[in-house]
Every structure is written in C-alpha cells, then in structure tokens.
Amino acid sequence: MKVSCSRKTKFIFITGGVLSSLGKGLSAASIGALLEARGLSVTFQKLDPYINVDPGTMNPFQHGEVYVTDDGAETDLDMGHYERFTSAVMGKKNNYTSGRIYYTVIMKERRGEYLGGTVQVIPHITDAIKEAVLQLDGAADIALVEIGGTVGDIEGLPFIEAIRQLRIELGRDYSLFIHLTLVPYIRTAGEVKTKPTQHSVKELLASGIQPDILLCRTEVPLSGELKQKIALFCNVAPQDVIAARDVESIYELPLALREEGVDDRILDKLGIWTGAPNLRPWKKLVESIRHPKDEVTIAVTGKYVELTESYKSLHEALIHGGIANKAKVNLLYISAEDLNSEAGLKKLEGCHGILVPGGFGSRGMEGKIHAVTYARKKRIPFFGICLGMQLAVVEMARSLAGIADAHSMEFDAATKEPVIYLMTEWVDSRTGKTEHRDQNSDLGGTMRLGAYPCVLQEGTLAAAAYGKTGISERHRHRYEFNNAYRERLEQAGMIVSGESPDGKLVEIVELADHPWFLGCQFHPEFQSGPMRPHPLFQDFIKAALDQAKGQAA
Ligand code: GLN
Prior knowledge:
Elements: E1 10-16, H1 24-37, E2 42-48, H2 60-63, E3 67-68, E4 74-75, H3 78-85, E5 95-97, H4 98-110, H5 121-134, E6 142-147, H6 157-170, E7 175-182, E8 185-186, E9 191-192, H7 195-206, E10 213-218, H8 224-234, E11 241-245, H9 253-259, H10 262-270, H11 280-290, E12 294-302, H12 312-324, E13 327-335, H13 342-345, E14 353-356, H14 365-377, E15 382-385, H15 387-399, E16 406-408, E17 417-421, E18 425-427, E19 434-436, E20 448-456, H16 461-466, E21 470-477, E22 480-481, H17 486-491, E23 494-499, E24 506-511, E25 517-520, H18 535-552
Bound molecules: glutamine.
Residues 358-360, 386-387, 410, 476-479 line the site of glutamine (GLN).
C-alpha cells in the first residue's frame, strides 16, 4: 500500500557508521549544495545524541567550536558547514540534542500534560524527536537531517528509532536514508576492505533501517567490481554505492559527489525532476583555490590551537579572504601562552597578519596582549575578534592612553580601570527590552547572543570594507567596551568605527596611523562563505598581502 503524504518537504536522513569524523556534516552540506545547484531549496537539521541541552557550555577542545546563528542559538559546528555551502539560514530549530528533547518531555511531565501516563522513550521521546524534525516541513523542498554519532551508539538509539518511524509515516517519496561509512585502504595488503561497511549496514538493519544510498568514504577510487560487492552485501543497487573520496579542499566535495551521480540517485528515488545542476560557481571556486597567485602567512594566537576544529569558522573565513584575493593563506596557530617571552614572540616573525580570536577565560590572555603590542608597533595588519577586540582595547588603553592598570573585568573583577566591563543593564535593540545581569548571573542566558545591527562611521577601514554603513553581525559575549573611557582612548588614537544604532555599544574599534588595525566585538567569521567572503576578512588578507609584498621588496 502506498502511504499518501501531505507534506511539502522531502526528508533525507543521514546516518554514519564505522567511526566518527568521517565528514557527515560536510557530506550533508555538499549534497545540499548540489540540490541547490539543481534549483531546489534546502534546509538542514542536526540531531546530536549527547545530553547537554545545547553545545553552548561545552569545551571547544572536546567538541569543536560553538557556532552562533542569527537568532542567537549556540549550535553544533555542522551548522557552519550547512550555511557556508548553501544559502540556507540556520537557527534554533535546526539543531537538537538529546538533552533538549528530554528537557521538553520532562517539563511536560512536570506540568502534568501526560495525564498520569507512564512517560517512555517510545513513544514520548521519539514523538518529541519527530515533532522537532517535522517542524521543517514547508521550510524548503528538501530537508537534510543529520544524526550525530555513529550507528550502534546507545545514546543515538531514540533518534534512529524516530527516523525509522518517520519512514513509514512519510513514505518512500518523501523520505530517504543515506548512510556514510568507511571503506579503508589497507596499505600492506594493497586492498580496500568492505567488511566495516557490511557490519555498519547490518547494525542499521538491526534497528529497522535499510539505507537507500551508501556514501563510502575512501582514499582510493572504488572500482565497479568493488561497488558490486558492497551492493550485494548491503542490499542496495550498485549505482547507489557512492564513493566519497578524499579531496584536497573541502570545497571540492560537491563536485566529487556530483561525478558519482549522487544527486541523480537522490532525485530519482524521491521522484523529483529538475534540470542539470549549474555547477559553474563551484568549478570556478575550486579552480581559484587550486591556482592561487599569491601567498600570505597569518598568525592566529589562541587558546585551543591544538585542535583547529575549535576555530573552524575562523579558519574557513580566513581561507575565504584568501580566495577573494586570489591568495593561498597559510595559517600559523600559535598558543598565546607561548608569547609571554621574547623567544616566543619570535614565532610571529615573518607573519604578514596577526589575528587574536574570541575566547573565554584568562589562559593566554597576557600573551594575546603581547601579540597586539607586536602588531601595533611593527605595523603588521591586526584583526581582533571579540575577546581579541577587548584585549586590543586594553592594550591601547595601557600603552597609548597611559592607563597603566587598564583591564577587562573578566580577568580582574575588581580592576580600578575597567575599560572592558560587565554592563549590568542594557536595552536589547532587537526587542526593546531592558536586560539585567551581574557577576553572579548564570553563565547560560546572560550573553549577548545572535545578530545585532551596527552602524559604521564613514571614512573608516570598516566602512571601506563593507561598502555601506548599516550592517548586522552575530555576537556571543558577556563583556562590553566601557564608554567612560571612550574619550580618552579616542584622544590617544583609537577610532570607534562601529556602534549600536543607539550609540551605546561600541562594536568596532580601529587604530589611526596603522596600515590595518581593527577589532570587532562580534564574530564576522560566522557569516563568511566561499562564495561570499566576509568583507573584513577580505580586507584583512588584502592588507596582509600588501605587507608581504612590502617585506619582499
Ligand atoms: N570572554 C569575552 C566576553 O565574554 C569574549 C567572548 C568571546 O570572545 N566570544 O565578553
């Protein structure tokens, strides 16, 4: 019997097997890009099995960066891939964790909404998951829903069960299962092995899900014979075995998957007809990444430099800035703690630009200030983001305005000169509501989060970069520039080039008489994409290129 479906959106569920880090998020983003290139609209959702209600409180060391959306959600970094690869806009309804699902169910139980019934994983938790997924109905032609973790994980079971049920409710024309696995190449044997894929599909079958398409992550091309073998053992057609081969740049993945015809298979199965994809922009992009004309080295002085996933969007935004300038960007991640000595500062020699990223906590804070001093004195292009901007203000206050004890209240709550301070009361320009917070407020829920408007001052680096004076950027911070010091700092050479529309919040600062020195209170990296490089990153890299040419001359 054919199940009729009154839905507007078709759902693609993406699961992963064998091991984590195979690139499920990038695969989903790339498939989304291919479907967009065929004229379809796409949206995404990530279902994360961990118990944290959101990733906002998670250490970036463990889970990579916390990505912030326009509507102020603190989300998984896969949201960043989705937004960078497509024109989809992510928000609160695009990322759910087990914690968030359980939280809603438990709150309902407390309110007595289950009328005395026993509250269980099936159907209550699975119903809440299905409800979260089906919110996307109508948002786009296709919704790509990615289940975090690996099949077989205990905590992922309710999600797998929920999508199994959705298959029956939605029918085959409205739902599709894609499973990403690993086909390892065993060097000593000179062979690729299919057994992990077979086991992974078996595991999925044990949960009642037969994948429709297999994406096989591989470092070598997969022969037709091998695809036949995988198809036979995994109960799919050979043309539904798609090789997801390693690529040099992540932006090659949509083209690599197109070569394997994954989009044709998806549309065929979902009963959708479109013309051929327009992949010209992607081809042009890959071409320019492969053949840069120049090269620059940028130092990023942070806290989590051992794990570059912690700075995922920043990393990509710098690459995009390079693409806009036809340049290859070499990134040198330097632990800020190493910059406390002369010897350590030597690491910055030869860099054409210095970037101090956002962050929380005092580790490496003094080192970051030394990096600002170095960039200011040696006239090296400097870009400070969020905490990086705040520390640039501290540095300018101390060195240029003669406020020797200047500090941020984040690091010295009792500082006599709080140039960066905790605003206890402020008006949210988006809602008009007055917000309150103090040193004892909860860590969650007291940050300025999400997109805020900002007005730029004509004739500044910021206005030149954006080419307009009204912008909107995403925030994630607790502390702000203290206006009590504004005049003294402006007299000392600091320029306020961006403010909130009411003029109460300083959003961008610059330094007069320097080739390119800019700090912003927001996170511009969250709005950069390979096809739409962010203006500030574009101009920062341009300034670094000028620096490189100057050094070479
Ligand atoms: N820790 C600083 C604050 O809370 C900066 C935050 C950030 O860099 N994202 O204001």
